[in-house]
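Q: Entry one of two.
A:
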Amino acid sequence: MKRYLVGAVCLTLVAGVVYARKLNKEQDRLENCGVVMQEVLNIPDNIPTDLLEKAECVIVIPSVRKLALGVGASYGRGAMVCRKGEKFNGSWGAPAMYALEGGSVGFQIGGEATDLILLVMNDRGMESILSSKVKLGADASIAGGPKGRDASANTDASMRAEILSYSRSRGVFAGVSLEGSTLRPDDEASEQVYGHAIKAKDIVRSETMGVPETGRHLVNTLQKSAPHNESDRASAK
């Protein structure tokens, strides 16, 4: 009887772990966002430091893949982290979950998954990104971001864009075109991360929202790499 009870308890614990794992899939995704961000920043010729320091928000979408239906169409989910403060000039805040849909990831090779990183460079378009679905290239201007020491050489081409985009596929890191894709808050995923219903705008705009454990790697990586917003507010007006 005792052996039977021990076995029953073990089965219950295993079932509980499996069930909890299903509930935490978005937390796993958020944790992976931190891993991707760290790996990209460890690439020798990566996102220029001066651009990351001027970014107001960073969106990380791991393993974007082509949809089975619709030639070239892509789909991926990830997280957005913004700087705190009304003018996005504080420390990095809590992450909100986001989804990328449609369009074509220009740098994607075959069926290989592509990691995407988007830098939101200014206030224009931020309110729409926070509250509703945004079509990249139409509602918010987007350009493939320069990398390494190319930032200054590409100022005219990329600095006018509200969003700069990067991809990593098969070990290759480069700017990528995402025009035609849509970006939207994934509030259902945020609910799984935080344990209660919450809007992306409320997460990002909060000064006191705590960073969930699975989001700490991502936030800490950004805080270590770009602790202050170095953008020139005067020139942005």
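Q: Entry two of two.
A:
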Amino acid sequence: MSQDRNLNTDYWEKRYQDNTSVWDLGEASPPIKAYIDNLADKNIRILIPGCGNSYEAEYLLENGFTDITVIDIAPAPLAKLQHNHGHNTHIKIVLGDFFEHRGEYDLILEQTFFCALNPALRPDYWDKMLSLLSAKGKLVGLLFDREFDNEGPPFGGTKAAYEELFKDHFELLKFEKCYNSFSKRQDTELFMVLKKKHVVI
């Protein structure tokens, strides 16, 4: 797999066509569902990067959220979303590169996008998240708290390594072992709620 983030479309399209994205749960992740269930404002601007089959987006729609954007570089999963929800004005379906995306969001949901990126791109990931989040915006979701035996993706990591990446730019509201993971991911996930740090000039 190329380390160039702009050359991954064919790779991911093939995985979706062949149904070999092994981390696809077939449903919205329980920890993210629980977080969504506690959101009072249904009109916040939400982004799901590397959305894939985007069960979380469907869950948001089912629960009345009105401003959802999903983005992926693979056409196949987005075609399914377009077929099922293309008529719905509450969701914007974007085929494109997350690192080229422009916008401002109050909430960005992380669900197996980070682990799909070559680890060399992790500093770029955090920088891009900072640029897309509103002043009070939050990055919420899950990271794998384990290393993988096989060459990724998925790519794993440790809590300490992740904290080192974001500590200078994000306020750590929550970053802990996930207690309500999907059954096959028990004890392998960290749940995070991160907020941009205010820059004092």
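A: Comment on entry two: The chain has one domain: 5-20+28-196. The domain at 5-20+28-196 is CATH 3.40.50.150 (Rossmann fold).
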